[in-house]
Design brief:
Layout lengths: L1 H29 L1 H46 L6 H29 L4 H24 L6
Helix pairs in contact: 1-2, 1-4, 2-3, 3-4
Amino acid sequence: MLYPMVVTLHLLCAILFIGVVFFEVILLEGIRKRLGDELMMSVEMSLIARARKVMPWVVATLFASGIYLGYVNFSSSGLSWDNSFSVLLTAKIVLALSVLVHFVTAIRASMTGCMSSRRFQITHISVAIHMLFIVILAKAMFYISW
């Protein structure tokens, strides 16, 4: 019974995290020119302040549940490079760790005042691309086999 609850929690956190990132990349970047630099910087600082309160909990829960799910899946199938599930899951984990590094770096930059508008934009685009590949890998793990 624990496994289905952890999978659900993991998916809900992933949806929230991915949703926020794609909101910022697709919707927020779409209004950048209309708002102007000064107002856009104010919007970004407000988002960063809110994200600093909410997103660490979401990311921590996402990674904690992911560690549990990875442990269960690797202990049941074994870490074998002959197993497509393990290979794809490992690739997903590597991308997730890269996202974690982006996230921690962005939080640190915002706390020290080093988060410029351009850095905000580049970080979010990079994380969005990582997350897109993570979602593709998450689905591929269950449909690709060799």
